[in-house]
Amino acid sequence: MSAPSHTPAHHAATRPAPRATKVAAHERVEIDMTVNGSEVTLRVPPRVHLADALREQLGLTGTHLGCEHGVCGMCTVLVDGAAARACLLFAVQCEGAEIVTVEGLGSQEDQHPLQRAFSAHHGLQCGFCTPGMLMSSYDLLAGCASVEPEDLPVEMSGVLCRCTGYRGILAAVADVAAEHPDGVPAPRNCRPRTLVGRGGPAPARAGDAVPEARPPAPVEVRLPSGAPSATVEVRTELGVPVEKAWEVLDDFHRLAACLPGAELVEVLGDDRYRGRATVALGPVKLTFDGLAHVVEREGRRMRVLAQGADTGGSTTQADIRLRAEPTEAGGTVLQADAALFLSGRIAQFGRALAGDVSRRMFEQFARAVEENARTGRAPAGPVKPTSALALLAGVIAARLRAVVRRIRRSR
Ligand code: FES
Ligand code: FES
């Protein structure tokens, strides 16, 4: 498809060469881009895709997200004049790019002909696909000599309408194509303005000093009201005496050193601790900055409230009760009951999977506690979390074993 006529210059050839710097998942990278005519500088973690950066950092929520796999086309925007799936582009790939979103196409007072036609033909039932349809049809018709109406179903098939508004949509696009055989007019709402993200400060204009766009870190753990997303009860036996095991749990530095993928960042006082933890499952890798507060210690029991937020918007809170008891053989039974509250992408794991993953991480934690108690030394460096693949394989294997057991019992 040809580049739309509005784009000043095709930037692809003049873009700065990609930076070769290696950055950690939780670090932020500075990027300059032009969005709907405004030059902006963002700081984003390298794994944040363009659609999330547009929605969360710039408040341009017109770009919708459906599948996040490049299938549904909801997130279609123009990148350097060509339609692109914003869910398949990392924001850091768009350094120097010129982006146009549906907000740049037209305004309420000055709608683009495509927007007017969608409205006239009732081409927006629930409206969820509308931004993708508009940007995709703009890309189709910009600078286009002609599009035959019979070709439209195929030409527009890159965006899926889930509520079957297709007829009106195709009629609208056909109308605009007939009215503008030499290409649709340029977007009408691209001009410098202040873009403000959801809940965060406005991103800087290019050339300004870039503030660190982070809300102040919380110092209190707040648990949501209502039922938890998942509850987990895990129990495991350690081959070390209970006093030794409890020595590890009672010292938060040693305890934190045993948590897979976690590191202690700051001791805040009053038994509160700031830390960082990485959780990986399949393609999803989340790095949480978090807070833990030991609210009760009694005998060999403790209660810990924890909360973490990932830069991509996932949050997790947990109410954890840990208990160590001696076994007759001189070992320890370590028990943890946790209520988990999940939101954002991590909630997509679902209850059962969240439970399975927590269980496997607890097993890893328990092994590290046993080792620590035996040697009397904290592990050097954070306990490596099980690889995402191994974790997933373990979860699936556990599921299969449970199914086989159920089948056997039912025979
Ligand atoms: S959300 Fe990008 S294609 Fe579906
Ligand atoms: S108008 Fe509802 S999904 Fe397309």
Provide a descriptive summary of the structure in words.
The chain is an alpha+beta fold. It folds into 2 domains: 29-179, Roll (Ubiquitin-like (UB roll)); 230-400, START domain (Alpha-D-Glucose-1,6-Bisphosphate, Chain A, domain 4). It has helices spanning 50-57, 102-105, 113-120, 130-141, 152-155, 166-179, 242-250, 252-258, 350-375, 388-410; strands spanning 29-35, 38-44, 76-79, 82-85, 98-100, 204-205, 230-238, 262-269, 272-281, 284-298, 301-310, 315-326, 332-343. The chain has a 7-stranded antiparallel sheet. Strands 4-3-5-1-2-6 form a 6-stranded mixed sheet, with helices on both faces. The longest helix is centred in the last third of the chain and has 26 residues, at 350-375. It is elongated and about 85 Å long. The model is unreliable at 1-13 and 209-214 (pLDDT under 50). The site of one FE2/S2 (inorganic) cluster (FES) has 11 residues, from loops. It comes from Pseudonocardia hierapolitana.
Heterogens: FE2/S2 (inorganic) cluster
**CATH architecture assignment of the largest domain:** 2-Layer Sandwich
What string, H for helix and E for strand, traces the elements in order?
Answer: EEHEEEHHHHHEEHHEEEEEEHH
The poorly predicted ranges are 1-13, 209-214
Major beta sheet, specifics? 7 strands, antiparallel
- Overall geometric form: elongated
Mean pLDDT: 81
Report the strand count. Answer: 13
If strands are numbered along the chain, what order do they take across the biggest sheet? 7-13-12-11-10-9-8
Supply the CATH class of the largest domain. Answer: Alpha Beta
**Tally the helices: what do you get?**
10
Our estimate of the beta-strand percent is: 25-35%
Count of structural domains = 2
Radius of gyration: 26 Å
CATH homologous superfamily grouping of the largest domain: START domain
Report the end-to-end length measured between terminal Cα atoms. Answer: 61 Å
How much helical structure, as a percent, in the residues? 25-40%
CATH fold description of the largest domain: Alpha-D-Glucose-1,6-Bisphosphate, Chain A, domain 4
Keywords: 2Fe-2S, Iron, Iron-sulfur, Metal-binding, Oxidoreductase
Protein name: Carbon-monoxide dehydrogenase small subunit
Biased composition (Low complexity): 201-212
InterPro entries: 2Fe-2S-bd (IPR002888), 2Fe-2S-bd_dom_sf (IPR036884), 2Fe-2S_ferredoxin-like_sf (IPR036010), 2Fe-2S_ferredoxin-type (IPR001041), 2Fe2S_fd_BS (IPR006058), Beta-grasp_dom_sf (IPR012675), CO_DH_gsu (IPR010419), Diverse_Oxidoreductases (IPR051452)
